[in-house]
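Human:
Class, as today's exercise, you are to examine the entry below, and be ready to discuss the fold:
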Amino acid sequence: MGGKACIRGMRLTVRTVVGLLASGRSPAEILEAYPYLERADID
């Protein structure tokens, strides 16, 4: 991912998750959109 921080080695960047939270998405909505994540990945 070009040196960007990723969630547990997945191809999902921390920036993506933080951006979703900042835009008002709830953790439940993020988990629904990315079912391979765990709640601990978002907290």
Q: What stands out?
A: The helical segments are 14-22, 27-33, 39-42. The longest helix spans residues 14-22.
